Amino acid sequence: MSRKILIAGNWKMNKTASEAGELARAIVAQIATLSAIDVLMCPPFTSIPKVSEIVGTSNVRLGAQNVSDKVSGAYTGEVSAAMLRDLYVSYVIIGHSERRSYYGETDAFINKKLLTCLDSNLIPILCVGETLEEREAGKVEEVIRTQLVGGLAGVPADKAETIVIAYEPVWAIGTGKTATPEQAQEVHAFIRKTISEILGTEPASKIRILYGGSMKPANADELLAKPDIDGGLIGGAALKADDFLALVKSGVKAQA
Ligand code: PGA
Hints:
Elements: E1 6-10, H1 17-31, E2 38-42, H2 48-55, E3 61-64, H3 81-86, E4 91-94, H4 97-102, H5 107-119, E5 123-128, H6 132-136, H7 140-151, E6 164-167, H8 181-199, H9 201-206, E7 208-212, H10 217-224, E8 231-234, H11 241-255
Parallel strand pairs: 1-2, 1-8, 2-3, 3-4, 4-5, 5-6, 6-7, 7-8
Helix pairs in contact: 1-2, 1-11, 5-7, 7-8, 10-11
2-phosphoglycolic acid is lined by residues 10, 168, 173-174, 212-215, 233-237.
């Protein structure tokens, strides 16, 4: 496969800085020189300096869970792309369903953040996905097309292929219910086709599409075996070093 698998941990609002340090150390100790796939940890903002130190010059990458759409200035409570870059952050999760539903983030707002990331050479991981209601109403493709068209508006051609998409069916996040590999592959293929309409076939063939939603060691191999599933965005199972390392192993196996 020409696309490099990405296994990304989304720690959400878990771990104090010292707890995060412990988890990061346990992970980095095992895979510091791994180069077959990309591995990413996304701790909360407050743990980024600590995890950044631990990641150091290893091959493990550091991500953030959010970023301001603004460059700098009087925006109380916000964290800018430059602040993240300064701490060696290289990826940012954008438009997670929890931010869409609990904090009212719209496709237009998410798009601003995505363009800010690209401008600052941060790799955005744009999350898309339908709710159970939308799936039951037969609206999966409509919902995802709208999120992609809105989220990817105005992407400069020379940056398009660096973007990462995460398909996270909302009904599978943190619920223990995983999409079947077939259900996930069907949506991933639709996402790739839609991206090729928006950004062109060349970037669409290079963009990595991650699956997220109760991914764990027990179901990762089957999901990662699908042709359009290029990795995982992992919540719960990323909080335990052993589980996360098992997922990394599944990634390496799928890449081979
Ligand atoms: P989960 O979360 O693995 O706990 O379902 C995934 C995510 O929301 O990124």
